[in-house]
Structures are given as C-alpha cells and as structure tokens.
C-alpha cells in the first residue's frame, strides 16, 4: 500500500497500515470550515465503486473547504485495517467518520469508541449490525435493489422451470444478505426453494465469481439463471458460462451500475442490473458532517440514495431505465 500526505495542502493525517490522505484543506474555507476534518474509510481502494465514492468525498470536501482523511482495507472483509484506520482518525481529531463496514459486526466496538468521543459516525452503502451502532446510514436500499432484479428475472422467465445459482458476498455481511433476500422476494421464492441448486460466496470479486460459477456448473450443469452480488462477480460468472458453452441458455442479473457493468448489459452479458450511486452517498455524508460540525442537526436514521433497474430489454409493468441512462450515470 502507498502511504501519502499532501504537504502542499498542509493537512495532517495519521498513517499506520492504510493509505490515509488529506484533501481540500483551506481551499475556499470560510469561518471554521478549515478546522473541520472528516474521515472516509472504504472496503478497498481498488473496487471502482469505492474509487468513485472517494472521488465524491474529495470533491465535496474541497467545495466545503474542509480536510478529508481517507483509508481503505486491503480486501473486502478486512476489518483489522478498518479498525486501525478508525484509531488513526480518532487520534487525528476528526469531527466525523464516513465508513463502509467490511465486517458489519466486528467493526461495532470501534464505532462505539468513536461515538463516545463525540465523533459523528455515518455508515455508507453497508449498514453495520446493528444499524443503530452508527449515527446514520446513507445508502442504496439494497433490499429494493435485489427485489428489482428478482422481479425482472421472474418477468423474463415466467412459469418456466429454472435452476438458480446464487453468487453471494460473504457470510453475514448485511449488504449481501439484503440483496440476496431482495432477489428472493422479487422472484417470489424462499431460500429453501428447490429451484436454488447452488449458493457460493465470491467476496464480490471477478476471479472468485468465475470459480464459484465453475463450482456451481459442476454441481448442476443445468443452471439457467444466475444471481450475482455485484457486476465483477457477474463478469466472472459469464466467463465460466462462456467456457462451458452456456451463455445462450443462462441469464445473469446483478447489482451495482458501474460503467463496466452497464456496458455488460449493453452487450448482453448481463440481462439487467440495479444501479446505485456511490458519489451521492459520499457527498451527502460529507455535507451532513460539515453541517453538524457547524452547529446544525446531526443526521440520524436511514437516507435512501436511490436505485434504478437498468436493462436493454425492458419488461412490461416494470419501471426501468435504458442503457443510455445507465452509462450517463455510471461510475468506474
């Protein structure tokens, strides 16, 4: 990992195992804004979703004239690095911390420690478990996102018998659970339905998605519908299906709305995806902490940052946006 502090901007950042940088110090600052420091901790610094989230936070921090410290885990699920980042940010005197929890339960003691010190803690994208362990949540309604693609798949498949592979995130991670359950609700089945012939964990990774799909095909070569936690996992699944000569008979649905994912919808690799908006999550989170730090009301509860179904083949009775909308609003 690279470590860096922008000396030109004169921002202080504590650094241990993670990349922690500072941006936007004093640029256009008014009043006490230059004394406000906000932390952003994402799951990784390589996933395009989190890259765009960081860009959104940096842009808004600069616009508001506040300091921003950033950190990321080494991989999805890296709780230890997120704990270290929180310790660093607490020590640096941040007013608020925006965090995408990698381990939604294990991070809770660190969130409690920050809040006990008067730091505003806002979860982005992924709710901690329990959600109330953060002051507020700015995120996609992941249950709705899953429901949208489940309804789409059911609309296409109708009463046709299906064999479903579910390529999930990691065990117990709230965002993965919500999307999984949403798909089931949208399709109109339960987790014990016999049509689900294979469930695998992918960590949202393309290579692991490919391996998971290969494992599922070994278990049941007749799989014809694939739910994936995100588009990297979907693209990995597509690679495995292509190698097995099954892309023409198998539909993939997914969630995220990154540019590579929308292009995969455009090309027909993915039938539909549910698009979410990471830049909006980050910018609204920064705004909320700045407003509170300047004497405003602290955000609480859940703020829905929106989701849209994106497909090149719309279905009757289902609201959706076309590929052009998806490309105009994608990230990565």
From TrEMBL:
It is found in: Cell envelope. Keywords: Signal. Gene3D superfamilies: 3.40.50.2300. The keyword Signal applies. InterPro entries: Peripla_BP_I, SBP_2_dom. Pfam families: Peripla_BP_4 (PF13407). Its main location: other. One of its GO terms (molecular function) is carbohydrate binding. The keyword Signal applies. Residues 1-24 form the signal peptide. One of its GO terms (cellular component) is cell envelope. Belongs to the bacterial solute-binding protein 2 family. This is Fructose transport system substrate-binding protein.
């Amino acid at each position: 990992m690279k470590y860096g502090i922008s000396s030109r901007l004169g921002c202080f950042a504590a650094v241990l195992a993670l990349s922690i940088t500072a941006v936007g110090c004093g640029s256009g600052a008014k009043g006490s804004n230059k004394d406000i420091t906000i932390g952003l901790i994402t799951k990784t610094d390589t996933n395009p979703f989190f890259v765009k989230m960081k860009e959104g936070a940096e842009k808004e921090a600069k616009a508001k004239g506040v300091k921003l410290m950033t950190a990321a885990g080494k991989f999805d699920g890296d709780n230890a690095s997120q704990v270290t980042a929180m310790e660093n940010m607490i020590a640096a005197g941040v007013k608020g911390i925006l965090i995408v929890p990698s381990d939604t339960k294990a991070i809770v003691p660190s969130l409690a420690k920050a809040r006990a010190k008067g730091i505003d803690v806002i979860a982005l994208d992924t709710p901690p478990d329990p959600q109330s362990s953060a002051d507020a949540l700015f995120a996609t309604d992941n249950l709705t996102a899953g429901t949208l693609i489940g309804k789409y798949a059911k609309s296409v498949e109708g009463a046709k018998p299906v064999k479903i592979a579910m390529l999930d995130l990691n065990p117990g991670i709230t965002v993965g659970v919500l999307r999984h359950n949403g798909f089931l609700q949208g399709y109109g089945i339960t987790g014990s339905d016999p049509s689900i012939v294979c469930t695998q964990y992918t960590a949202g990774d393309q290579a692991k998605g490919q391996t998971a799909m290969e494992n599922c095909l070994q278990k049941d070569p007749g799989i014809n519908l694939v739910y994936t936690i995100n588009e990297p996992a979907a693209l990995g699944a597509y690679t495995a299906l292509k190698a097995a000569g099954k892309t023409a008979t198998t539909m993939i649905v997914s969630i995220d709305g990154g540019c590579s994912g929308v292009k995969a919808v455009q090309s027909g690799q993915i039938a539909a995806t549910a698009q979410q908006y990471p830049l909006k999550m980050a910018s609204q989170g920064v705004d909320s902490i700045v407003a509170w730090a300047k004497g405003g009301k602290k955000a609480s509860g859940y703020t829905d940052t929106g989701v849209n179904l994106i497909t090149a083949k719309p279905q009757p009775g289902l609201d959706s946006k076309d590929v052009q909308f998806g490309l105009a609003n994608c990230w990565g």
